[in-house]
Amino acid sequence: MTVPPLEATDTDIDARIDRLREQFAELKEVERPARDGDLVTVDVHGVRDGQVAEGLSADDFVYEVGTGGIAEGVDEQLRGKKAGDIVDVDAPNLQGERAVCVCSSSRYAKRCCRRPPTSGPRTRPSSTPSMSSVGTWPAG
Questions:
Q1: Cα–Cα distance list, 95 to 45, 53, 62 (Å)
Q2: % the chain with pLDDT above 70
């Protein structure tokens, strides 16, 4: 069986490197208002009929503003807010029912990724070693 060599384009490599940079980035607290991409530490409580609904609460939940991951309208309310602000969002379809999503934020941070210098072309090996250079398995 012959397996064709895998070819990765520079675009593929750059995209993978950017994902890794973001995944392993350092976080730096910020004092400015929140914007898309910021990580906000929030306490989230879904409230129905004046009571906190079971299964709709999380404390110290780290949420990326702009991802739409809590409830519709939360991102719009968090943008421009600072740590300590509380937002109430009417959520007409929170787990299938109407609720109010109450988010109180305690900390805002941004990702800090180090970028490599951009002077000069990036180089990579022109080929990878063949399997024959690895050696052989010992006889069993």
A1: 13, 10, 20
A2: 76
